[in-house]
Amino acid sequence: MATSVKTSNPVTANPVTVGVALGDRAYHIVIGRDVLPSLGHRIAKLRPGARVAIVTDRTVAQHWLAQTEAALAEAGIASSRIVVGEGEASKSYGVLQDVCEGLIAAKIERNDLVVALGGGVIGDLAGFAASIVRRGVDFVQVPTSLLAQVDSSVGGKTGINSPHGKNLVGAFHQPVLVVADTAVLDTLSPRQFRAGYAEVAKYGVLGDLDFFDWLDANHTEIFAGGAAREQAIAMSCRAKAAIVARDERETGDRALLNLGHTFGHALEAATGFSDRLFHGEGVAVGMVLAAEFSARLNMIPAAEAARVQRHLASVGLPTRLQDIAGFQQEGLGDADTLLTLMGQDKKVKRGKLTFILLEAIGKAVIVNDVDPMKVRDFLQEKLSG
């Protein structure tokens, strides 16, 4: 594993670089500790003369906005800033309008760049705004959460939420560069880091048993911030980049990346897209439900599903519906409510449910036209504890 070193020219640092092979829209993911200072030089080399608008949220701005602006200024790049509120509430029509109007007011042109400085919410929001302002402006992802570094910053999915469900309004709009500084993860709360780890584990569960075994053995070092952390991020990015290169617009294999998301998105909607359930936490519960439902359909042994649950629980992630904050006090709706929310999933085809299920740990498959009554009965059993 290459290690980043500080030099007088930030571009000469030696991070890990992962390529996303999309022909004339190919780009690099730059991963390493203290690579944020190289952002301006990388942008100047990629897009000489471009101006930049930084979209971020209030919390990230307190920690990293000044450093990002300084990195751009050092390379002679003029920048403006648009700061929004934190959390899923910002993935809304109203905030999207504010960001679009901010970009237009800043006179960002089609040959300029938008920089998404933040977690998955900011990447989705800023990327979608970039895709529609002036019919398309290029953007750079600077992910500041583990979840964003290993998942949402890569692959070009952008969008906002609808009252009907998560990410139902959006566009595929690939970034031109991703700069993932692992040092920024030091400012995450333990809960935020755990939520991001769910997406790391997902890559092992869906397609790489060896990686899952490695995570089982090394998750303590990943959480402690050792060399295993950068290795886990790089391995996750390589896994996603390979799938995106094969299936950019999710007409086939890319749907496998939604393991845990059909259940998870419904749970996020049921909890009002609030901090009762972070996205990665919903994915963790959703992965366990997907594994247990696979066992219910006799696709995998129950022991395999139990191993997935045990691994996620061992790092402190919620794995049961009853683990979700407020479940005991408020309940989480009934099985019919959750099934209705699943009906808004983007993988639904002509009203029929599609699930990502398991044939083994490390081998996920797309299962079409799942009997909704089997899903309902399964959920009712899980809701009853």
UniProtKB/TrEMBL annotation:
Which cofactors? NAD(+); Co(2+); Zn(2+)
**Documented EC number(s):** 4.2.3.4
Q: Which GO terms describe its molecular function?
A: 3-dehydroquinate synthase activity; metal ion binding; nucleotide binding
Q: Which Gene3D superfamilies match?
A: 3.40.50.1970, Dehydroquinate synthase-like - alpha domain
Where is the 3-dehydroquinate synthase N-terminal domain positioned along the sequence? 82-194
Q: Which chemical reaction does it catalyze?
A: 7-phospho-2-dehydro-3-deoxy-D-arabino-heptonate = 3-dehydroquinate + phosphate
Tell me the compartments it is located in. Cytoplasm
In this protein, which residues make up the domain named 3-dehydroquinate synthase C-terminal?
196-348
Pfam families noted in UniProt: DHQ_synthase, DHQS_C
Q: SUPFAM superfamilies, alphabetically? A: Dehydroquinate synthase-like
Its primary localisation, in coarse terms, equals cytoplasm
What GO CC annotations are associated with the protein?
A: cytoplasm
The EC category is: lyase
Keywords, sorted A to Z: Amino-acid biosynthesis, Aromatic amino acid biosynthesis, Cobalt, Cytoplasm, Lyase, Metal-binding, NAD, Nucleotide-binding, Zinc
Keyword Cell cycle present in the record's keywords: the answer is no
Q: Which residues bind NAD(+)?
A: 86-91, 120-124, 144-145, 157, 166
Pathway listed for it?
Metabolic intermediate biosynthesis; chorismate biosynthesis; chorismate from D-erythrose 4-phosphate and phosphoenolpyruvate: step 2/7
Q: Which residues form a coiled coil?
A: none
According to its UniProt entry, one GO biological process term is: amino acid biosynthetic process
Protein's UniProt keywords contain Disulfide bond: no
The record lists Zn(2+) as bound by E199, H261, H279
Cofactor binding, per record:
Binds 1 divalent metal cation per subunit. Can use either Co(2+) or Zn(2+).
What NCBIfam families does the record tag this protein with? aroB
Relate the protein's function as given in its record.
Catalyzes the conversion of 3-deoxy-D-arabino-heptulosonate 7-phosphate (DAHP) to dehydroquinate (DHQ).
Stated family: Belongs to the sugar phosphate cyclases superfamily. Dehydroquinate synthase family.
In its UniProt entry, what is this protein called? 3-dehydroquinate synthase
Q: Which organism is it from?
A: Afipia clevelandensis ATCC 49720
Lineage, uppermost ranks: Bacteria, Pseudomonadati, Pseudomonadota, Alphaproteobacteria, Hyphomicrobiales
